[in-house]
Amino acid sequence: MPMRFAAADDAALPLHLVDAAALDGWLSDQGGAVATWLKALGFSAGIGSAVVVPDGNGAPMMAVAGHGTADQRARGRFALAAAAAALPAGTYRLITDLTGPALEQEALGWLLAGYSFDRYRDQPGASAQLVAPEGVNAARIEAIAEGEALTRDLINTPAGDMGPQELADAATGLATEFGAEIEVIEGDDLLTRNFPMIHAVGRASTGAPRLIDMHWGDTGPKLTLVGKGVCFDTGGLNIKPGASMGLMKKDMGGSATVLGLARMIMALDLPLRLRVLIPAVENSISGNAFRPQDILTARNGLTVEINNTDAEGRLVLADALAYGAEDAPDLMLSMATLTGAARVAVGPDLAPFYSDDADIVAALTRAGDTVADPVWRMPFHAPYEAMIEPGIADLDNAPKGGFAGSITAALFLRRFAGEGTRYTHFDIYGWQPAAAPARPKGGVGQGARALLDALPEILGL
């Protein structure tokens, strides 16, 4: 279903969004018939409640959706989207006192409620359509929704249909749509071009490893997005148990999220020079798989002792980050489904990020609250640097002990981001474990909307 608002329609049914605390006053303003009907149905304006009110002839004359209480809204997001799923098919015109970011959030939530992943079977999303509310930037909200839909589609597609080749094809299609330049470095050419760790991680798969490099825009500050594209992760020779392997189609969630964000940026024609780097691999098992205790030399010359082949994401990102830093971007961001430790720390709903730049931290924190895309700052804690230094090589890809796993992974990546580079890393989950308003169970973008909102402040656009 297109992630777009319905065309303006005089026949669109008025949809009143009513706060639970204001319900009694609102009912008294509507007249006896409406109040009688809603009271008879037990309407209490709770989140997710929606009722169509008939006129004297039985034809629909309005709809009413519950907005819940302030406490209820604080415990979730996209209250209107919950009602959208409960409304019958039709076109609606929102009537509300909401303005500004609060109205934009609810309008976006409505569009996102229409998402469904229907590649393999019919999976209809909410069928009710909304006319763009007055006072919102409809084109911007649609661009955000379509970027999020791209992210979800890529993550939800199983690895049999979303390997390194298919991920490169998706990036190429996006580049073609927006007139971007793209290069895909594949297989043994990675060794010739000095991307040894991307090649080492991906060489055991029947799907050759790749580095996807996309450029868009010719004026403004340079923004480089680096996304982890591990299309499936067996764990390599340190093979995962079956229960841990079950969701590994989402291990390319970082690449899916940066492609969704790139789509938003290009659709909105932001005045910047965008670069997207995605190391696309499968971490598989065969006779030429990289091994525990191997020592790899990265693009920037640092040596890495492999103490767990299941800590492969940081290896492929390292080469891509080193390559991105050579272009001296004004801002470089990496996004990856990198560590279970991040999930233990903040759960699946928060997107933790690492930055030592106070301006970036402030901008992202504000933006996450503004656009209902929650993020949480984590520390590049320098005293833990010793934990990633094994002695036999410059770096250890999997420090023993299990402490601070997300922090040590972020510190590892920072070694490749280049001296003086303005760098921020996101350790996301990329998966909605249970259905919620505007977010069905499955792949989900995290941090992209907060970044989009924060970029003008961070880069001075």
TrEMBL record:
Q: Gene3D superfamilies from the entry?
A: Leucine Aminopeptidase, subunit E, domain 1, Zn peptidases
**Any one GO CC term of the record:** cytoplasm
Q: Which GO terms describe its biological process?
A: proteolysis
Give the highest taxon in the source lineage: Bacteria
InterPro entries, sorted: Leucine_aapep/pepB, Macro_dom-like, Peptidase_M17_C, Peptidase_M17_N_1
Q: Which UniProt keywords apply?
A: Aminopeptidase, Hydrolase, Manganese, Protease
- What terms describe the molecular function in GO for this protein? manganese ion binding; metalloaminopeptidase activity
Q: Does the keyword DNA damage apply?
A: no
Chain coiled-coil ranges: none
Q: Which residues form the Cytosol aminopeptidase domain?
A: 308-315
Looking at the keywords, is Cytoplasm present?
no
Which SUPFAM superfamilies does the record match to this protein?
A: Macro domain-like (SSF52949), Zn-dependent exopeptidases (SSF53187)
- Report the Pfam families cross-referenced here: Peptidase_M17, Peptidase_M17_N_1
Which family is this protein grouped under? Belongs to the peptidase M17 family.
What is the protein name for this chain? Answer: Leucyl aminopeptidase
